[in-house]
Amino acid sequence: MTSTADGPGAVTATPAQGTSPPHNPAEGTVTKGIGASLAPVDAPAKAEGTFPYAADLWAEGLLWAAVLRSPHPHARIVSIDTAQAAALPGVHAVVTHEDVPGDAGHGRKVADQPAFARDLVRYYGEPVAAVAADHPDTARLAAAAIDVEYEPLEAVTDPEKSFEAEPLHPDGNLIRHIPLRFGDPDVTGDIVVEGLYRIGRQDPAPIGAEAGLAVPRPDGGVEIYTASTDPHTDRDLAAACFGLPPEQVKIVVTGVPGAMGDREDTGLQMPLGLLAMKTGSPVKIAATREESFLGHAHRHPTLLRYRHHADNEGRLVKVEAQILMDAGAYADTSADALAAAVSFAAGPYVVPHASVDGWAVRTNNPPSGHVRGEGAMQVCAAYEGQMDKLAAQLRIDPAELRMRNVMATGDLLPTGQTVTCPAPVAELLRAVREAPLPPLPKDSPARDWLLPGGPEGAGEPGAVRRGVGYALGMVHMLGAEGADEVSTATVKVNGPVATVMCAAVETGQGFATLARQIVQETLGIDEVHVASVDTDQPPAGAGAHSRHTWVSGGAVERAAKMVRSQLLQPLASKFGMTAELLSVADGKITSYDGVLSTTVAEALEGKELWATAQCRPHPTEPLDETGQGDAFVGMAFAAVRAVVDVDIELGSVRVVEMAVAQDVGRVLNPRQLRARIEAGVTQGVGAALTEHLRIARGVVRRPDFTGYALPTALDAPDIRIVKLIEEQDVVAPFGAKAASAVPVVVSPAAVASAVRAATGRPVNRLPIRPQAAVGG
After folding, report:
1. 116-119 LR contacts (CB < 8 Å, sep 24+)
2. Count of beta carbons in the 10 Å neighbourhood of residue 624
3. One Pfam annotation, family name (predicted)?
4. Is the pLDDT at 252 greater than 70, yes or no?
5. Cα–Cα distance between 230 and 234 in angstroms, integer?
6. Is the pLDDT of residue 418 over 90?
7. DSSP labels for 490-509?
């Protein structure tokens, strides 16, 4: 792809999102279309390290950018002196808030964050200025040479203190409060258990750090090449910041090196565009690992207080909860995360009465935002901790207690919404409960890595205790509370080749592969290309909540069916029948009576067909003043059984096995589905044991992969997918459900449950600290 701009020259961007590889009959009985295990076409290039990402882009006359970030979590900006930085040889431009022509801020749901801090800095690492220079080292030196005088202010880093603190933002400290009331608030149970739970700040930690390239346009606008997951929203935010109409800003999506929410941050796009327009040259930035940790949003740290009421048989009577989410300095998607947390606060269990209060507040901590399973993951850890407490109090097997309370289709959420989608929660739990357990370790393990703590672990076999824990969880699919979920797709056929054009970004979730499968299934064409994404195409929305499988996949299917009608109608008319009497399969077109039989290639010869279609699910509604409303389009469920070995003297934990049963609706690509579940479980194990971005008085400590411990291949447990339930959701295209978020939600709770079983300790904090795993 080349830039439309003159002067700076051609920009090398990513190729089309994918082209169908020749199908391999040896791979299985289904070799193409829906149900086939098609491999992503870009998999070899990614494995070999040759796939082009934003960090690989280049343009003639390229300049390099660097961003100066605040060293304080809260301070007043007294003055900014850029003279020394601008005078350095090789420096072409320096920009601050004074160079921002537009008044709008940025933020995914609430645009309350300025491109550069103006009068105040509100978190450690907030952008204050940016530099463009002819070498990346020069740019960094120049950024460091900018003289900013700060007046440090008291930082509010405890969300509980945010309610009484002075306003940190013109919009105040309280972002949202949801008081959910369901049933009779005065009802009590025979058995009552209480708990206080804390969930840490998990980072998306993409292996590929953020990068981008901005190229000025001859019309005074700018093109930005970056790994956006919602290019049209990013374009609109950037245009408002630049003081330009949207048509003068173009976002071109490059290869996305992983996306679990962090790619929705627009913090780099603003300085890139401003510098490119000011210098008249292409400007590139490639974030360091530290800048990556400071620049994107994290999972909401959450404090949860719970009280569960049950009868003497263990059946839930009422759930009371208080949920406090730390949004950091800016709102971003915190209102949405809070809605999910409050709505799913009781989990996939039947609860006749509930009283839940949820708050999202601003602090001077780094911003929180959308990370896979937001809201649902935090409450799952808490309500499953409560279920373990109830089981211990009643002396009931923890799995049996859960079985007595599981939700099914037709039950009500505490929001009053009826669960109309398939909800086979009992079957999921039964599957993991009945799955064979892994063998116990020998008294003297032959391999040291079997001990918790790894090869160099100092533990003794006699101190190791095994624990088995269970967790059930749920997520919502698509947006919620009235979000207009719509996507547009175009399918073009020229002879034996089909092309799909849709602004749904391939982030690793497999949309490009799914789009090819849909066209193969519908049109019987083997060679299918998926075009690269930019904002010249109609919008398709963000890639969160598996929405592209549903909404964008549905748009591709509708467009492909329209092309199919264009293809079949002339043939049907020729033989005096309707198009519905013709079928397309294995590259052949046949009539119901066998009179007509031809190949798709012959029927398409010399023709060019195309169609554009939209998919828009049924509308939802916002939660009302008591937390009631049909806020969600659909839900997906999973059950996980965790088996852990814990050294009760050292507190080290080894996850031996994770058994997963999941409600998937319909398996569209078996290999891809398995990969998504395994990745989700591994991310959940990281949240349970190691992943926590440490903040001390608002300052991020050790923002690198030595201070932030991601699970490696050696830490990943055996993951057994014991059951996939294919009960199709009739309102979803293909009947499929979200695949990757729900194992992230459930796995941390399952690991915590297993550690409780091994140690007898309460384990009320994630990630689990060693001292919490020391038991008897």
Report:
1. 116/270, 116/271, 117/70, 117/77, 118/77, 119/76, 119/77
2. 13
3. MoCoBD_2
4. yes
5. 6
6. yes
7. EEEEETTEEEEEE----SSS
